Automatic annotation (TrEMBL):
It comes from Shewanella youngdeokensis. This is 23S rRNA (uracil(1939)-C(5))-methyltransferase RlmD. Belongs to the class I-like SAM-binding methyltransferase superfamily. RNA M5U methyltransferase family. RlmD subfamily. One of its GO terms (biological process) is methylation. Its EC number is 2.1.1.190. GO terms for molecular function: methyltransferase activity. It catalyses: uridine(1939) in 23S rRNA + S-adenosyl-L-methionine = 5-methyluridine(1939) in 23S rRNA + S-adenosyl-L-homocysteine + H(+). Residues 12-70 form the TRAM domain. The gene is rlmD.
Amino acid sequence: MAQFFKAKPNSSKQLSSKLSLTVNRLDHLGAGIAEHQGKVVFINGALPGETVQVQLTEQKKKFSKAKLLKVENPSSQRVAPICPHYAKCGGCDLQHLDINAQRQHKAKALNELVAKFAQTQASEVADAISDSPWHYRRRARLATWFDKKTKHISLGFRANSSSDVVEIQSCAVLAEPLSALIPDLAYVLNQLSGKKSLGHVELTQADNGVFVVLRVTKALSDKDRDRLAEFGKNHLLSVVLQDDDAQSEYLSGVGEQPHYGFSGHDAQLSFSAGNFIQVNGAVNQAMVQQAVDWLSPQANERVLDLFCGIGNFSLPLAQSGAEVIGVEGVPAMVEQATINAAQSGLDKVSFFHADLSADLSQQPWLGKVDKMLIDPARAGAYESMMSLKKLKPKALVYVSCNPASLARDSELILKQGYRLTKIALVDMFPQTHHLESMALFELTK
């Protein structure tokens, strides 16, 4: 007998009546946490100590999610967001919380996660690395959306938990020259006959100027190209077209790659569209210097830098005279890092490509290591840390963009004979819940 599936009603998505709840804390993603009928309720936009009116939007066995309708009793730490797009844009999610309270929350969340999963506390909690809470992003990728009815192309960021594009006129966390460019850029893009062939737009403020990279799915007409070239000339910036094969063509500007450097270091790092760089230049400068200070590489030592990217840590470490081995999973960035080392006059640093989530035991660069630095993506470096027993570096600096993976990896590192001696918050992304950190582990046996 044939059996036909009949879907059950999705009760988890049914809306509740309005509730009044008291928020007691924030989770590490910045959502307010309250309790209702024995379950925790996550409320985006709510702050500890507040009484809020909400509506449950999702109900699971152990938790619920709710939409914030009204703040009935606001926290003293609540501030008015300065961005007019904040309610819709998915870029920032903590503008409603005072900046000092943001940093206190992040530091607390970091220490609690490490203590919970790694069952340890750092011997020393170093001062947080931070800088200006506004106009700090030197790079951003803006989305475009072409309306077939109106023939208008919108330029902005994705909405929160949506693929919709929120059209913006400014951005309070973008570097001021980039934010000021948005209205004029949106205007010229809407004058192009080939505007429906535009993909994302990448804005970068580098040491050698402002760069606008336009991703195009089809070749633009000569008239469109001339219009963009004139725009670049009038605004004193480089306009670059990038096709589906990642081939770049400069329509205006100096025709060279964007680059950045470090005060106190001679290293200069060039990069291309698609290469990862830390978007907060001031915080990156301080973070790299702290990593160098914590590791204190010596001329007779060998330092391994995993997930090295284009050499952000490798090159400053190599200026100590130590031999530095950088390893990266993206071939294009390995090539760029090698070029950057040569242009910076550093001959004791070399770069290799490897899948850092695979077995590393047969890699040619794997050998005696005195010190080590890792800067993985959000997934962490669990597989790479399995090699610690063989490498046994005296000191390891772990730069993390995800406290959960840092906490998980810390447990493995500690089991291999290390202790957590220092930890510090790195506030790379003010006004958002994103939490970066740096930890120093030292070998004890």
